[in-house]
Design goal:
The chain is α+β, with helices and mostly antiparallel strands and 144 residues long. It has a single domain, classed as Hotdog Thioesterase (Thiol Ester Dehydrase, Chain A, Roll), CATH 3.10.129.10. The protein is 28% helix and 34% strand. A hairpin with a 4-residue loop joins strand 4 and strand 5. InterPro entries: 4-hydroxybenzoyl-CoA_TE (IPR050563), HotDog_dom_sf (IPR029069). One of its GO terms (molecular function) is fatty acyl-CoA hydrolase activity. This is Thioesterase domain-containing protein.
């Protein structure tokens, strides 16, 4: 499962050299992550409504090439793990050339909001959302 977004880098994201400040890459990951979570109807509002928060506990960014002011980038988020945690991989490409500019990942775990206890496996509500999405995708593929 994956999702992509296209972003044109705004001026307020760059430094004096017109290169994106390193912390904004995680923001671009977040934008793509939200689109991915929307696909199976379990974005942050649905997470909260289900009684769980999903804090990021680990993030990694590998800066391959700097991104410039007004550059159009394509950010791809790919769900890699979901049984015990959410691990999402990201790749940022130059929209015009397709050249890879950055890659990374984030890891999130479920925390029960009421007790503030970390879950050692993903709650059933996430699995139900993923199963419903998978069934919907299968049905769409079978249509003529």
């Amino acid at each position: 499962m994956q999702a992509e977004v296209v972003i044109e880098v705004p001026f307020h994201d760059v430094d004096i050299m017109n290169v994106v400040w390193h912390g904004h890459y995680l923001k671009y990951f977040e934008i793509a992550r939200c689109k991915l979570l929307d696909q199976f109807h379990y974005n942050y509002m649905q997470m909260q409504a289900s009684g769980y928060a999903w804090p990021v506990i680990e993030s990694h960014v590998r800066y391959v090439q700097g991104i410039q002011f007004e550059q159009k980038i394509r950010v791809r988020a790919m769900l890699k793990e979901w049984e015990n945690r959410l691990k999402i991989d990201y790749v940022i490409f130059d929209e015009a050339t397709g050249k890879r500019l950055t890659k990374g990942y984030t890891t999130q775990v479920a925390v029960e909001i009421q007790t503030r206890e970390m879950c050692f496996q993903s709650p059933q509500v996430l699995l139900d959302c993923l199963n419903a999405w998978s069934e919907f995708q299968s049905a769409q593929e079978q249509k003529p």
